[in-house]
Design brief:
385 residues, alpha+beta, two-stranded antiparallel ribbon, 9% strand
Length: 385
């Protein structure tokens, strides 16, 4: 659907300014009041402002589709009354063909989510759909392909979960039933079809250089279809009990630290001993690091190439592997580079050996003839069948 042209944008701005003037407000104040009203309406329905805006958009899209269908039906009835053939495919005022409506999903905004749709969403969120991050209305969302969701619904894991774990999951017998199960997601606004857009399209400035590669900016499509290669974005974030439990634990921890003077004497003494022990371990670690450096500086001149205590202490290894082995000599980087260079040379000799043996089977030149230089490099010849 094409966006408004500059003339329509100017008319909309003038209309908005006139509405603000009727209420004795500036356009900025009127816009702020509308945002507050939108947030209040979203809280009444238990939704976020972004989800409420998405519902309003889908509702407007449905009204537009219904009006277009009604106009097409009226034109078809008028044409039948006048004895004319109804408009063919591609003519103005024609309703979509049945083949095009086969995979279209009628979204129903404003209605509570179906328990079956929530069960399907929870199952798909637990599966590896290879999601990728996208930007929808300025927020990061998870996006996935339809074919991976259909594949997960047709998998044995879904049949096992539907039979034993969750009785709310609808049964799946074939491809059509799997698509019908997937259509429950957009019906309850748990996932919607999106397409990639360029957020800088139509702007005069150049594209920013610090753009994240592979991070799409998407928009919700008007027609919610179920083609395999289409992308859907998750609006359903799953049960929030983990986030709530983590938030409660953080709040409890902050209160516990603030109320430290009110703790029992035994707990305060235990915390003091624990803090002293941690400080002692930290000081011991720094003392060991300084000692091993001094030991290396002494042995690098006395017993070259130098001795390291705990040579893997600052390497990228695990905690226990940092203290293994107990000591080790300083490794010479030049020897390493020579070894790395000599290894491919040896492999080259091994590769060239078969070619030398094959050429030795060829007839040698006569004593009176001049020596002929032969290329002993291995070659790969193409054989035509």
């Amino acid at each position: 659907m094409a966006g408004p042209n500059p003339q329509q944008m100017a008319a909309m701005q003038q209309q908005f300014a006139a509405e603000a003037a009727k209420r004795g407000m500036t356009p900025e104040q009127f816009a702020q009041k509308q945002r507050e009203q939108l947030t209040a309406d979203a809280e009444k329905l238990g939704l976020t402002p972004e989800q409420y805006v998405a519902q309003l958009r889908m509702r407007a899209m449905q009204q537009h589709q219904q009006q277009a269908q009604q106009q097409a039906q009226q034109q078809a009835q008028q044409a039948q009354q006048q004895g004319q053939a109804p408009p063919q495919q591609g003519q103005p005022g024609q309703s979509p063909a049945p083949q095009q409506q086969m995979h279209q999903v009628p979204v129903q905004p404003g209605q509570p989510a179906d328990p079956k749709a929530i069960a399907v969403a929870n199952f798909l969120r637990s599966q590896n759909l290879k999601p990728r991050t996208c930007i929808l209305d300025g927020q990061r969302k998870d996006m996935f392909k339809v074919k991976r969701a259909i594949r997960a619904i047709e998998s044995p894991a879904y049949a096992k979960a539907a039979a034993k774990k969750n009785s709310k999951l609808p049964p799946v017998t074939d491809r059509a039933s799997a698509e019908n199960v997937f259509k429950l997601l957009p019906l309850s606004l748990l996932a919607l079809r999106v397409s990639k857009i360029d957020p800088h399209a139509g702007h005069d400035h150049a594209k920013p250089k610090n753009r994240v590669k592979g991070l799409w900016t998407v928009k919700v499509e008007q027609h919610q279809e179920t083609n395999d290669m289409m992308h859907y974005v998750w609006l359903y974030e799953g049960p929030q009990w983990k986030q709530k439990a983590l938030a409660a634990a953080v709040v409890a921890g902050i209160f516990a630290v603030v109320l430290f003077p009110l703790w029992p004497i035994m707990l305060r003494q235990g915390v003091w001993y624990l803090s002293v022990g941690m400080m002692g371990l930290l000081g011991l670690f720094f003392a060991m690091s300084i000692f091993r450096l001094i030991l290396f500086c002494i042995t690098v001149f006395a017993v070259p190439p130098g001795l390291w205590l705990f040579p893997n202490l600052f390497e990228d290894v695990g905690f226990f592997d940092s203290f293994k082995p107990l000591w080790g000599w300083q490794e010479n980087k030049k020897k390493k580079s020579k070894k790395s260079k000599s290894e491919p040379a040896a492999s080259d000799v091994g590769d060239a050996a078969p070619s030398a043996t094959t050429t030795s089977a060829q007839p040698t030149s006569t004593p009176g003839s001049t020596p002929v230089k032969r290329d002993l490099a291995a070659r790969v010849e193409e054989v035509e069948e």
